Structures are given as structure tokens and as C-alpha cells.
TrEMBL record:
It comes from Suillus subaureus. This is RecA family profile 1 domain-containing protein. GO terms for biological process: DNA strand invasion; double-strand break repair via homologous recombination; meiosis I cell cycle process. Signal peptide: none annotated. One of its GO terms (molecular function) is four-way junction DNA binding. One of its GO terms (cellular component) is Rad51B-Rad51C-Rad51D-XRCC2 complex. CDD domains: XRCC2 (cd19490). InterPro entries: P-loop_NTPase, RecA_ATP-bd, XRCC2. Residues 19-227 form the RecA family profile domain. SUPFAM superfamilies: P-loop containing nucleoside triphosphate hydrolases (SSF52540).
Amino acid sequence: MASLLNEIPRESLQNLLSSVRVHTPSFGHHISAEGHAPAPLLSSLSRGDVIEVQGPASSGKTHLLYHLILLCIAPSREMSIDFGGNGLAAVVYDTDASFDVARLHQLLLTRLSLVLPYNIEMARRLTEESLHRLHVFRPTSLLQLATSLLHLPLYHKVSIPEHEIGLLAVDSMSAFYWTDRFIAEQMRNMPQRELHPSSVNPLQHVLTALGRLRLSYAPFIILTNWGLNLASQSSGPVTFYKQHLHPFPVYSENHDASDLPSSMTGDLPPAPMPLPLTHHITLSPVSIPPFAPEISLHNAVQQEVEYRRSMVQKGEITGLVRTTGRQEITRLTLRITPENVHITHF
């Protein structure tokens, strides 16, 4: 069975994990983008929490993921110095083939250098040691993703029994959406008697595997998702998106995470949702305000260029955070610079 994992392209920067209980200390309780106290959102996250991060292209989903990975793999303490990380392993399934380890290395080195401004060599050493706790797999289909998830305990046992998984991420869940939708359309034209049980939506297999790993290892799970279809509800500059993946964990302000209903649609019978969603984050780049009606074409072009330049330099992204079981919506600001990712939550 181990040979199945070897067929999946991956970047292993060493090995992972030990079994832990679901009720464990909070995740990401120290390190922040600016070396100060972390945002309340991150300090309140617990092992076993599941976050969906949704937004259009270039809305900061992967950079938010980078930030959370750094909280996981960065060292906790070294030579009586508190580095604010957790010193745990992170496993990333890079389905979009866009995860940039070099960028993550740059961000981590910058953050550790803030703590060690007079010992850059030690910051470099700790950065390299931290990256050994990162493991990146690149499945090329949902079924391959599900297979890899199901065999992750074996991979841990054989390759990295000395490390504990603190974070498990899929970036993104939507990567195979169009191909799987085409297959589903083809299957609808087949007689029901010809359908094999294994032909059920492969996303169901992925969610089932993630649910099992959540119960057995209690990693913090983050799932990035495209924002394809606009929803009617919006708040300020951030627009909500309809869920285009089915089945998928459902955000609900009226239920506990363990009681979430299934979001399956179509002719297939409903099934229990194996993976509860605890937080949903909607990201959106700051939009450009409309021009005044009386502005000339020349001035409009010049103003747009200047405004876009300032927005790119500022690198600011807004997000809305919804938590299952709560009605209030909180806001975060994600500011991405060449050297760092700053998060403000309010």
C-alpha cells in the first residue's frame, strides 16, 4: 500500500506525526506577523478545528495558509527564547500546484529574524529545521487526494513517527471541480444499475478521509475554496459566495459543528457530513471606488493607475469570519508585503 503514496508527486522536507486527542491546546498561540500578540482569531483556534477559506483568484487564500503553516512549524522555544510557534508538522496537499516553498522560506526567515535581530545565522538554522516539518503532496485528482489522505497514517508511521501533525491543508478543494463536474454529467446519463458504489462523488471520499484524520490526529484543518458564484448577501467591501462544491461542510449560525447537515444536492440520497466546519473566512481584495460622474477620461485613467499602484503596494485584503454556532460576523485585514504577512482581526 505504501507504493500508492510514492505515485503522488510530493515535496518532503522531512517527516511527520503522532496520534493526539481532539481536545488539545489552542493552535497558533504565540507568533504573529509583526512579532506582537496574535490576532484573536488565531489565538482562539483549537486542534481539530476546520476552516474553509473562500475567495476569488488573488484574494490571499494561499498567503493566509502560509501564515497558519508558519504558526505550526515554527519552533516554540529554543535556548529560553520564545519564538511563538508550535514546533509541529504541517501536511499540505497542493492540488493547484501553486504552493511556493521558497516564498514560505522567505516569510519564516523574516519572522524569526525579528526575534533574533543580532543572530541571523541562528534564524537561518531554525528556519531550515522548521521547514523539515513541512510536507507537501501534489495529487492530480480527487481520488488520488482521497487515497493519499487515507494512507497518511501509514506514511506517518513509516516515515516520521517522531513528529506530530498540527496542520493539514488542501489548497485548493476546487482544483478538480470542472473535470469532476464533467464526469458527473456523464454519469447522469448512465442507467442506475450500471453505477458502481465506488462511482459516488469522489469529494465524499475526500471528506470522509479528512473526517477520520480529524478524529484520530486532531490536526487543524484548512480548506481553501474558489469563490465562483456570488451570493446575494454581502457586507461592506466583501461579497459572500455560494457553495459550488457538493457535498461540502456547511456553515451554520444555528447549529454546533457536530450537528451540521449535509449539503448534498441532486439525485443522490443525503449522507451524514463526515467533516464539521467550525469557521468560514471569505476573502476579497480591496475594491476600487467608482469614479465621479464628472471626471474626464484622461483623469480617470490617471486616477485608476495611481490608485491601483497604491493598492498593490499596500497589499491589503479584507475578510469576513463566520463561526459555526454564532450569529456575529467579525472582520480581518490581511496585508501582504514582499517580506511578511500582517493580520489584523477586529
